[in-house]
Design a protein that fits this description.
This protein folds into three domains: about 60 residues, Response regulator (Rossmann fold, 3-Layer(aba) Sandwich), CATH 3.40.50; about 140 residues, Response regulator (Rossmann fold, 3-Layer(aba) Sandwich); about 60 residues. The protein is about 40% helix and about 20% strand. It has eleven helices and ten strands. The protein has a five-stranded parallel beta sheet with strand order 4-3-5-6-7, sandwiched between helices. Strands 9-8-10 form a three-stranded parallel beta sheet, with helices on both faces. A two-stranded parallel sheet has the order 1-2. Helix 5 packs parallel to helix 6. It is globular, with a radius of gyration of 20 Å. About 20% of the residues are buried.
Length: about 280
């Protein structure tokens, strides 16, 4: 859109407690469905769009908005971890179903409409990779949001494989439960005012800016608009000033013109890096 990229609009909507619960249907000429859904869009249509696709999308939006309680499925073989996840994300405006195996997860998904899945990769009867594959292919649940929550260190190839089929990957570590809460709230489009006071405050604290970063200037030198968007959205949340260049030559010129730049984020694979 003129003046502001649609991804930026979507990202700002999803990081404002007043608007993050609003389901956003994206219609775009870009072929970036997975990336857009990871930002929190409820659906994605690529132009040109047929009338029947629009009708289906609007019916999906209406059904989602009219639904009183969203359904969360937690697939985790460790009983204590399973309970901790359910306690963290909570019920109230949600109905949480917790199971300990892939077979039980498939049974629930066949019998119940589920809005989001939190999945551990280490299951007793099948791997998380196999379960996701069966959810997508066997059950045909292409639009189902899946958040992988695992203590396993992933190889580069495994992470690439998961990025293609899951909306989010969270490794279990010190602050991972906070991120799990935030990601599921995003994909479930939860209203902040409907959350218990402690959970509402917790969600709001995750978007608070760091005063030490506010006002600082950074430059992004990258020819991939997705990387530029992702970094710009992150920095703007902290009220930082962002400069941008899509090639090495322009990046160096911008740095010379802006001595106030505190940090530069540079892609090493640029089409004109030989110019350096």
């Amino acid at each position: 859109m003129p003046g502001l990229h649609g991804w930026s609009v979507l990202d700002r909507l999803k990081h404002d407690p007043r608007t993050r619960h609003i389901p956003v249907q994206v219609i775009s000429a870009y072929d970036e469905r997975d990336f857009t859904l990871q930002l929190g869009a409820i659906g994605y249509l690529k132009k040109p769009v047929e009338a029947e696709d629009l009708i289906k999308a609007f019916k999906g939006l209406r059904g989602f908005v009219q639904k009183e309680r969203k359904v969360l499925l937690v697939v985790e073989d460790d009983q204590r971890q399973r309970k901790a996840i359910v306690d963290l994300i909570g019920n109230g405006d949600l109905h949480s179903i917790a199971v300990g195996s892939g077979a039980d997860a498939l049974r629930v998904l066949r019998e119940t409409h589920v809005d989001c899945v939190v999945l551990d990769l280490g299951l007793p009867d099948m791997t998380g990779f196999e379960l996701i594959e069966r959810i997508r292919r066997e059950l045909g649940l292409i639009e189902l949001r899946i958040v992988v929550y695992t203590g396993r260190q992933l190889s580069h190839d495994e992470e690439i494989q998961l990025r293609r089929v899951a909306e989010s990957i969270i490794v279990k570590e010190a602050e991972s439960m906070d991120r799990l809460f935030e990601e599921t709230a995003l994909f479930l489009h939860r209203r902040a005012e409907r959350l218990p006071e402690t959970k509402r405050r917790r969600l709001e604290e995750m978007t608070v800016s760091d005063p030490a970063l506010a006002g600082k200037t950074v430059i992004i030198i990258d020819d991939d608009v997705r990387n530029v968007f992702a970094l710009t959205s992150l920095f703007e949340r902290y009220h930082m000033k962002v400069l941008y260049a899509d090639n090495a030559k322009e990046g160096l010129r911008s740095l010379a013109d802006h001595p106030e730049v505190a940090a530069a984020f540079v892609d090493i694979m640029m089409p004109d890096n030989g110019w350096l």
